[in-house]
Specification:
The protein is α/β, with parallel strands linked by helices. It is built from 20 helices and 17 strands. The chain has a five-stranded parallel sheet with strand order 4-3-5-6-7, with helices on both faces. It has a five-stranded antiparallel sheet with strand order 8-9-10-12-11. The N terminus and C terminus are likely disordered.
Length: 593
Amino acid sequence: MRAGPACEPIPADSSMTDSSGYRMYVFRSGRRDVPGQRLVAELADDLGALAAPAGADRRRGVVLRALIRAGEVESILADAGAGSASLLAGLTDDLAAMLVGGDDAGALAISDGPTSDHERSDVWPRTARRLTTPAALASIDIPATVPSSPPEGFSFYALHPLDFARLAERLASPPAPVRVVGIRSIGTTLSAVTAAALRRQGIRAGRITVRPSGHPYDRRVELGARELRWVQDGIAEGAQFWVADEGPGFSGSSFLSTGDALAGAGVPRGNIVFLGSRAADPDALVAPDGARRWRSFRAERVECGTQLPGDAGEFIGAGAWRHRCYDDESGWPPSWTSMERLKCLSRDGSRILKFEGMGRYGSECLERARGVAQAGFGPEPRDEGQGFLSYPWLPGRPLQAGDLSAAVLERLADYCAFRASAFPVPSPVTDELIAMARSNFSTEMGIELPWELHLEMARPVLVDGKMDPHEWLGSPSGELFKVDASGHGDDHFLPGPTDIAWDLAGAILEWRMAPDARRAFLERYRRRSGDDAERRLPAYLMAYALLRLGVAAMAAASLPDEGEARRLLAARHRYRAFLIDGLGPAAPPGALG
């Protein structure tokens, strides 16, 4: 979150157009295979925690965590076609009602779910006791191994489930009934919260979930016989149909495919409302005929980032932190401002409050931040609840590439050695990184990547992913601290978990190390870690440069601020120059499979 050196001016280059930025490959799927019964056991633990005495703030946090996990399990079961998906849907509904009602466990309204076993009037505590018994857990026929990924809005974008409750309350217009369609995965939880908020307003509301499939820019939704009956029942009672999901993204195709499926089933387009987390520019959507299709529906957006810790003061997200770190804009590093985590200062200015993620993802970030602090590389975190951690605002300044010295090289090497031992992971596959490298190279250079890229996995870890100079703070006493060190190694951007050579490559490129500095850096790392990374490093340097080039290009294309776009395009040019001048026409040693 800190800042660094000014960027060089970018020369005119016909190959570096804004439109090519949208074709860059920068986001990862984030899916990983996890044991299904482990997710169920973790959900049972969350429900059990609700039975323990706790203050109101902690109890709300437990309800929130349980709700997010219940929505995750419900979505997995629905994708698998498991019969127990309706049982989990009922639990998700009950937890949503608790959250919306301020932890009120009183009688809940009957839901209008698509099946009779989804329509329940029992109170939540009875449901919780039933689900936490061994017999009830055994009835959940979840597959042995299931694909799981963090819900992006809850993990990265400070989207709170209550944001959708507030939107539902604003749009509520009794006595018209509402049928809510959640787009899996995160739309599962969002649909439950939306329906719960409507019921509290006295509106009859039920929900189902759907899973769009197909190309990311041209999704399709197929409604089964049960869903079609549910839709027809809603049409007969004159219901509105609300579609709940985060986004829309660049294409809008998940929303559009769901809206088209409802319209194809007979719902008047005027009765279909998209509830999302951002306002779309219809003309910029890349889905086929996206602008016309989007304008045929009504769209509403939530106000994200409203659920802040009580001590929140000045907003310093979206690049605003640079005003406090630099005398003028000439020293600002580039930033994809719309993708920055939500950040603000505490009211007394002594701490940074940063959104690091809710649910399981946020808990993992907290543990990593504590590990970095305990090793002496970063500030000590404090859990502020609702997905926020806080860190002390340290005196000092963000570093620049020109600050590179023998002491800095040692600190960088020691930090990489620490991460190599502290955050190991099972060896991930490299297919997605290689696909990214090929795609971004051909998009940027206009030719296919002329080499077979081989990314060796000798030390797979949760990398830092942000080794830039401005991510290091130099204190008045001469100490160097790594900031923003917990979330980026496992967020929605590539690379995800990979070899520690990714961070080594990042340090070499971002600090612009000369050959002698690079040798000293790698030798220090080798002595500290026992890992000689020299042979596998060239391939990672190429992959790193191609990813960061793609991020800079896509960010510049998506941001309206001309000054920010210039900084980003300058960064893009620097990575491009490295690929051309540093690697040359021959295949890099060690990069061949």
